[in-house]
User: Which sequence fits this backbone?
């Protein structure tokens, strides 16, 4: 009976599956291994933070999942189709208005012309920028740009949102507000989020699961399940305590490089 | 702040309830308001004193120095006419009614030659910018061609096409096509890679990537190339008209320059040079500069310069 049940459940219940993924750059003889044997599953609707110091291959990993690059070995599955990607730079197109940036994403997704404008407006309102449709990118503040970038990423209607240190260039107050907005959007949608950061508190503030990568080569060092209730605050004691524990582990990983 | 206050803050429970949704929207709206800067347009008076007045003063100075040189009899009057002689020459041409047709003959050739150069230079530029073997093969030649003065092509063109319009257009194209193509190559090279990556994640690959991301991103460099291409068209045209002048070709500015020289009409020569200058500057000021400013301003690239 149990055996039958196992067979009946879908084999792939995952939003992102990385299976023994290795990525190296350069010729095979003198190859520089960036990611070494990474296996990671992100469940549908899960929020996972990838944490690591420089050289851990965080961005390389996201590029692989986004399909911008191919792994050297191992396999990557994104069953829901192409993943959306947000960068540290807003990467909005400066020749378009905020609304047109979103409409272009909708157009490239194949949304019919007549529906684009209303859909772009809905997405702008989701990131609380209902009045910004006609604004040029340079007229927006750093926080507003990242929110438009988020709306543009959402316009792809992907099941998975990849975020590459999207708030790293923002001031602390703006970042705090955007954390809260991101969690609200994540709650309202069924998005799986794979969020890369080097900021331990940010990881603990946001994620259901924090995955620590070691550096050179990037390997999974440890994972933590974060069961603090949302909404959390980045300055709360619960977040701080866990951040201390993870930071100690991260420092240990970094210290290993002194001997080499 | 007193020490008692400090202790009481520290004793507050660390885990306070998070802001409700409406509070967040208030906070983000407040942050947006704080961080948004309004850019004011420069008042007209400052545009006049800052942009219009200086060139006018410079022109006046040149005229004064010229008049002084004439009054001091540095050269014979038939070699160095006064500004007034040149003005009278222009005025005579106006009264004869030839001036507009002469300008139109040259201008229409210049514009047509420029437009053909755009049609040829743009695909060449795109190929050189995006296809590596093509770049390796003709990239250096293309930038090398820019350093050849257009006059150098005139003898070759005359041998190929005789004294015909084909000669004139060939010289214009050889002058303008490389500069337009090179402008586009520079524009594409300056595109930030992040835009291409963002475009690819949005699904803009292949021709859709070229159309929706690469070309618009390269537009500032392309417009600069077009502006330079116009300058090259106009110069090449003058070189061609000057040398390949024949009654069958109609009287353009270059030919008129040559006729004035043959008649030892120095006021006529200077008047024609001024007309050539005015048309060249006029097209740049009236057509290319507004387009360039519009492209740059819409991308926020002009506000920093004040």
Assistant:
């Amino acid at each position: 009976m149990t055996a039958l049940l196992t067979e009946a459940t879908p084999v792939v219940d995952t939003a992102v599956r990385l299976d023994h993924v290795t990525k190296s750059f350069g010729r095979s003889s003198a190859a520089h291994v960036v990611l070494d044997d990474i296996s990671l599953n992100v469940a549908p609707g899960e929020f996972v933070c990838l944490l690591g110091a420089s050289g851990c291959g965080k961005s390389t990993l996201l590029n692989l999942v986004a399909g911008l690059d191919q792994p050297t070995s191992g396999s990557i599955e994104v069953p829901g189709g192409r993943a959306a990607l947000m960068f540290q730079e807003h990467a909005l197109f400066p020749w378009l208005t905020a609304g047109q940036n979103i409409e272009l994403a909708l157009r490239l997704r194949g949304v019919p012309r007549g529906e684009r404008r209303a859909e772009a407006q809905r997405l702008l309102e989701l990131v609380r920028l209902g009045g910004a449709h006609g604004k040029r990118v340079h007229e927006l503040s750093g926080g507003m740009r990242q929110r438009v970038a988020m709306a543009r990423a959402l316009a792809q209607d992907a099941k998975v949102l990849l975020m590459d240190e999207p708030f790293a260039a923002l001031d602390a107050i703006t970042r705090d507000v955007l954390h809260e907005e991101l969690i609200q959007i994540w709650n309202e949608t069924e998005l799986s989020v794979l969020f890369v950061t080097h900021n331990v508190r940010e990881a603990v503030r946001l994620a259901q699961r924090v995955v620590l990568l070691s550096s050179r080569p990037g390997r999974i060092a440890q994972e933590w399940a974060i069961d603090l209730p949302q909404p959390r605050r980045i300055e709360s004691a619960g977040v701080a305590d866990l951040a201390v524990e993870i930071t100690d582990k991260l420092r240990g990983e970094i210290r290993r490089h002194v001997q080499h | 702040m007193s020490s008692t206050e400090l202790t009481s803050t520290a004793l507050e429970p660390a885990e306070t309830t998070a802001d409700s949704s409406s509070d967040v929207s208030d906070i983000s709206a407040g942050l947006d308001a704080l961080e948004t800067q309004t850019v004011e347009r420069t008042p007209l008076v400052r545009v006049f004193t800052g942009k219009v007045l200086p060139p006018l003063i410079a022109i006046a100075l040149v005229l004064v120095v010229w008049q002084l040189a004439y009054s001091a009899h540095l050269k014979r009057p038939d070699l160095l006419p006064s500004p007034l002689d040149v003005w009278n020459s222009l005025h005579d041409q106006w009264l004869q009614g030839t001036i507009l047709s002469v300008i139109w003959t040259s201008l229409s050739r210049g514009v047509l030659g420029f437009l053909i150069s755009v049609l040829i230079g743009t695909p060449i530029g795109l190929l050189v910018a995006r296809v590596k073997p093509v770049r390796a093969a003709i990239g250096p030649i293309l930038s090398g061609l820019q350093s050849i003065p257009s006059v150098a092509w005139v003898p070759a063109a005359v041998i190929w096409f005789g004294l015909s319009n084909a000669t004139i257009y060939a010289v214009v194209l050889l002058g303008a096509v490389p500069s337009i193509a090179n402008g586009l190559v520079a524009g594409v090279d300056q595109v930030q890679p992040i835009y291409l990556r963002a475009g690819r994640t949005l699904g803009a690959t292949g021709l859709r990537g070229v159309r929706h991301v690469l070309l618009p991103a390269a537009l500032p460099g392309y417009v600069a190339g077009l502006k330079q291409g116009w300058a090259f068209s106009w110069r090449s045209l003058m070189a061609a008209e000057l040398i390949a002048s024949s009654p069958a070709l109609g009287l353009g500015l270059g030919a008129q320059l040559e006729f004035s020289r043959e008649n030892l009409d120095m006021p006529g020569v200077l008047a024609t040079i001024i007309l050539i200058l005015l048309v060249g500057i006029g097209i740049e000021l009236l057509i290319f500069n507004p387009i360039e400013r519009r492209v740059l301003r819409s991308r926020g690239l002009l506000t920093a310069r004040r």
